[in-house]
Write a structure and sequence with these properties.
alpha/beta; globular; 9% strand
């Protein structure tokens, strides 16, 4: 039993939107790459960086020379957290579901090793994988680091955030942007930007009360894989989806993603 998740559910009584995703996709194959594309349409509604309210001064003859409205801020996703079970792998298996192998490889190219992290409540946890064998097998099959943690999702969000904020700057990697480059020429190298703020992290998973809630508690962006590898009709999944329908019907929305630290607000 995931006790940490059960305790975290108490927060939903005061903040129902914590279990609502910022973006929803049917399956892992519909994951947009880069992930920023999932949030950029209407990004101004989900970000609450400081902005000055428009002036309400009376219109005058000079109104025609007023500056155009500002463009929506660019979403900057520098790291991706992946759930495993029923997200990109069958439940209980430590390899990529065959239909999603191409998508995983595409994701690895867009977000090199230091920018990808698998956070699972089965592989890598102290209670479900005490000897680390599941995590090691998963790393071997996917080529993606697996996070080792004591507390299960969503309660492990401070450790996940610390992992990215304190990680050594990623080494330079080959750029894949120039598809027309001469095959004999070496591709240019670019420095991978490190994570400096939780808004630069996106969490992808199939569970609202663990994956999505972890992202929202962290201050990251969440992508819910609604249908998963296989349709899950379990009691907890049905409870999650009923909660989400109720919360949306009541007008609740996922938490706004801050793009600044609270201390930086003016």
């Amino acid at each position: 039993m995931n006790i940490s998740a059960t305790l975290s559910l108490v927060r939903l009584l005061s903040t129902p939107g914590l279990a609502l995703p910022h973006h929803t996709i049917p399956t892992f194959n519909q994951l947009p790459i880069p992930l920023s594309a999932a949030f950029e349409s209407g990004s101004s509604a989900s970000d609450d960086a400081p902005s000055s309210s428009p002036s309400s001064s009376s219109s005058s003859s000079s109104s025609s020379s007023s500056p155009p409205p500002p463009k929506p801020k660019r979403i900057d996703i520098r790291a991706v957290v992946l759930d495993k079970d029923n997200c990109f792998a069958r439940r209980g298996e430590n390899s990529v579901y065959p239909a999603y192998e191409a998508k995983v490889e595409e994701l690895k190219k867009a977000y090199p090793r230091a920018q990808l992290l698998i956070v699972s409540n089965s592989a890598g946890t102290w209670t479900s994988d005490w000897n680390g064998r599941k995590a090691a097998a998963l790393e071997q099959h996917t080529g993606i680091p697996v996070f080792r943690h004591v507390l299960k999702k969503p309660a492990c969000y401070p450790a996940v955030l610390t992992h990215f904020l304190t990680a050594a700057p990623p080494s330079s990697v080959a750029s894949h942007a120039d598809a027309d480059a001469d095959a004999d020429a070496h591709p240019p190298t670019t420095t991978v930007p490190r994570v400096t703020h939780p808004s630069q992290i996106a969490v992808v998973g199939d569970r609202l009360f663990t994956d999505v809630m972890m992202a929202n508690l962290m201050g990251a962006r969440s992508i819910w894989v609604r249908d998963g590898v296989e349709r899950d009709e379990g009691m907890l999944v049905r409870l999650e989806q009923r909660w989400a329908r109720w919360a949306q019907a009541k007008g609740y929305t996922p938490p706004a993603v801050r793009t600044y630290w609270p201390a930086d607000a003016v």
